[in-house]
Write a structure and sequence with these properties.
This protein is an alpha/beta fold. It has one domain: Rossmann fold (3-Layer(aba) Sandwich). Helix content is about 35%, strand content about 20%. The protein is built from 8 helices and 7 strands, in the order αβαβαβαββααβαβα. It has helices at about 10-30, 45-55, 70-80, 100-105, 145-150, 150-155, 175-185, 205-215; strands at about 35-40, 60-70, 85-90, 115-120, 135-140, 160-165, 190-195. The relative contact order is 0.17.
């Protein structure tokens, strides 16, 4: 008897790209926009979603996908709103991928805009297209004013860069202008927003951006 060894290798990035295109096709056919919101833990992603639902929930029909290692806490926060929401527990995975989104995307066939909260991480989500229309990356000044320069790839691929918690900049000795310049140097096409979700400063720029997506 001959021993036969078979090696099988799946190109995970290629498979992710294929499923991302499926997701993108679904969104286009249904006339839906999707925003992939990325950022580190504590940058303000969930609060951004909450305040967006508060501000525009009567104008726009939203759907929300929440990605996290364990989604229970964020799901409790979002389910209070009158929106479709699907939590995705990623377990040991540090990012969402197109396959995970593909499993739940059909639920949102009648919404105008899907807000996708990615897992809190500035590295792992970079390589995984979800089929979204726009990528948004949030950072807070409390992460240090060198955070943008240290993670160039995620900012290079972003359509919008949000620098949050600007009211704390002096207290944590963060140079906001350095963060802005680093962002523009890495990605000159991105919209850069200064914001403080607690005080509301700069939030109107975000609301105008979201509103314009569905007009």
């Amino acid at each position: 008897m001959h021993k036969i060894e078979i090696e099988a290798e799946i190109d995970l990035i290629a498979e992710n790209k294929r499923l991302a295109e499926e997701n993108r096709k679904f969104l286009k056919e249904k006339g839906i926009k999707a925003i992939n919101i990325m950022g580190a833990i504590g940058s303000g992603k969930t609060l951004l979603i909450e305040k967006t639902l508060d501000a525009l929930g009567k104008e726009i029909k939203f759907g929300v996908i929440l990605g996290d290692v364990v989604c229970k806490a964020d799901h409790e926060r979002i389910k209070k709103y009158d929106v479709k929401v699907e939590p995705i527990n990623t377990g040991k995975e540090c990012h969402l991928d197109a396959h995970l989104v593909n499993h739940v995307i059909d639920v949102f066939d009648d919404v105008d805009l899907i807000l996708i909260e990615n897992v809190g991480n500035l590295v792992c989500p970079v390589d995984f297209d979800l089929g979204e229309n726009y990528r948004v990356t949030m950072v807070s000044v409390t992460e240090g004013d060198d955070v943008v320069g240290k993670h160039p790839e995620i900012f290079r691929l972003s359509d919008v860069i949000i620098i949050n918690k600007i009211s704390l900049a002096e207290a944590v000795e963060a140079n906001i202008e350095k963060m802005i310049q680093d962002a523009k140097k890495i990605n000159g096409r991105a919209i850069v927003m200064k914001m403080d979700l607690k005080t509301g400063e700069g939030f109107e720029d975000w609301i105008n951006f979201v509103r314009n997506l569905v007009e």
